[in-house]
Amino acid sequence: MKPQEIEDLSFKIIDKEAGDHGFDDAHWQVVRRMIHTSADFEYIKSVRFYENALSSGVKAIQRGCSIFTDTNMARVGIRKGEISSFGGEVKCMITDKDVAEKARTTGVTRALAAVDKASGEMDGGIYVVGNAPTALLRLIELIRENKIKPALIVGFPVGFVNAAESKDELMTLDFPYISNKGRKGGSNVAASIINAMAIMAAKQ
């Protein structure tokens, strides 16, 4: 089978097994791609969309926004063709020398230091967190202090220390986010959400 045939068949299987999932077509495109990436149907129940978050993300991509990720895995997993066609760029600052130096001298995580470095470029952009709760908590702090105004936060840190808690905190914001309840997440799932929106942006 060719790659597109495999993907199409996978989506047919997902649609069949998901049954009456309750999402409208646009939101289902996102959730279905999350399931396709993870083989985890629990995202149907755990995913959370802030009102108009999806349209905010799609419009930001169409404007050629910058997309920041907390891991290079997420950066690599995001489709560049659609993003670059609008003039956008996907960036990850986690391995930048000045980020590493700030983390070393201040005792914070590199993920948090990378958020601080990106803060000056983040207005109107999208920040994707697929691994580090410290990055998500820093984003929440900066949003509450009105220091950054991204178009969307995709918050899917994974793990046992502050992953679920940081997502719960994100979902208290009156601000566009896509996230989920619980410990599950990951860079691959976070990237799949951007990919779904990029495809939507290209088709509109």
From TrEMBL:
SUPFAM superfamilies named in the record: Precorrin-8X methylmutase CbiC/CobH
Similarity comment: family membership: Belongs to the CobH/CbiC family.
Pathway: Cofactor biosynthesis; adenosylcobalamin biosynthesis
GO molecular function terms attached to this record: precorrin-8X methylmutase activity
Listed name of the protein: Precorrin-8X methylmutase
Boundaries of every Cobalamin biosynthesis precorrin-8X methylmutase CobH/CbiC domain copy: 5-199
Swiss-Prot/TrEMBL keywords: Cobalamin biosynthesis, Isomerase
Gene3D superfamilies: Cobalamin biosynthesis CobH/CbiC, precorrin-8X methylmutase
UniProt-listed InterPro entries: Cbl_synth_CobH/CbiC, CobH/CbiC_sf
PANTHER family xref list: COBALT-PRECORRIN-8 METHYLMUTASE (PTHR43588:SF1)
GO term, biological process aspect, one: cobalamin biosynthetic process
Pfam name, any one: CbiC
